[in-house]
Amino acid sequence: QKEVEQNSGPLSVPEGAIASLNCTYSDRGSQSFFWYRQYSGKSPELIMFIYSNGDKEDGRFTAQLNKASQYVSLLIRDSQPSDSATYLCAVNSYTGGFKTIFGAGTRLFVKA
Amino acid sequence: DAGVTQSPTHLIKTRGQQVTLRCSPKSGHDTVSWYQQALGQGPQFIFQYYEEEERQRGNFPDRFSGHQFPNYSSELNVNALLLGDSALYLCASSSYLAGGEETQYFGPGTRLLVL
């Protein structure tokens, strides 16, 4: 089992729809969770972070965390073609020493 | 406010050579982490530096080494390059003293091609 798993996609949604991206992690000692957006050929750009169970909203983005289920998600409302990118889930854990583990990413296509 | 910078942007080397990549953290940040990102994969943690010491290391061989300078900038050195070392090398900075060590900001990366 991979430490951080994401559906590789591609996930295709029409413009204006809600895109839902999911991530599961294996280390129950994980304490903080991040979503990054990465355009082709570019470096990851931080979108949101979440530490506590529940929802956290920032503009069109909502991160959801369920530590009991070891699940974190990102919702993108009113998706735009400019949202087309790879979305990386990252998990910080202190088990055995601090480390950040990334998933392989989900490719999102927003069709105009 | 300057973000994270990296140099060079691109590099071509041959097998067996050595390479040094450089990173300057975001202003106010004191911690630098290095990642390797192969095509189609997520970034893989190489190591993290704080106070000029390696704090944590990922599952990378000793051919990968690093250094952090008093001004918090950092270098990543890779010896005896292999074809499989071809990747995008990312530097991320964060602030341990400010309690924000967990939130990392990435530089533009250095794309290394080993022939």
How many β-strands of chain B, per DSSP? 11
* Helix residue percentage of chain A: under 10%
Give the strand content of chain B. over 45%
What's the total count of β strands of chain A? 11
Mean pLDDT of chain B: 92
Measured between the Cα atoms of the first and last residue of chain A, the distance is: 36 Å
Unreliable stretches covering 5 or more consecutive residues of chain B: none
Largest interface, counted by CB within 8 Å of the partner chain's CB: A-B, 23 and 23 residues
State the distance separating the first and last CA atoms of chain B: 37 Å
- Low-pLDDT regions of chain A: none
Written as H for each helix and E for each strand, in order along the chain, the element string of chain A is EEEEEEEEEEE
Query: Mind telling me the C-alpha Rg of chain A?
Result: 14 Å
Task: Return Rg of chain B in Å.
Answer: 13 Å
- Multimeric organization: heterodimer
Question: What characteristic shape of chain A results from the CA principal axes?
Answer: globular
Tell me the major beta sheet of chain B. 7 strands, mixed
SS-based class of chain B: mainly beta
Largest sheet of chain A: 6 strands, mixed
Describe this protein with a few key phrases.
heterodimer, A: 112 residues, mainly beta, 5-stranded antiparallel sheet, 11 strands, 58% strand, B: 115 residues, 7-stranded mixed sheet, 4-stranded antiparallel sheet, 0% helix
Description:
The complex is a heterodimer of chains A (112) and B (115). Chain A has no helices and eleven strands. By secondary structure, chain A is mainly beta. Chain A is globular. Chain B is built from no helices and eleven strands. Chain B has strands at residues 5-7, 10-13, 19-24, 31-37, 44-50, 53-57, 64-68, 74-78, 87-95, 100-106, 110-114. Chain B is an all-beta fold. The chains are: A mainly beta (112), B mainly beta (115).
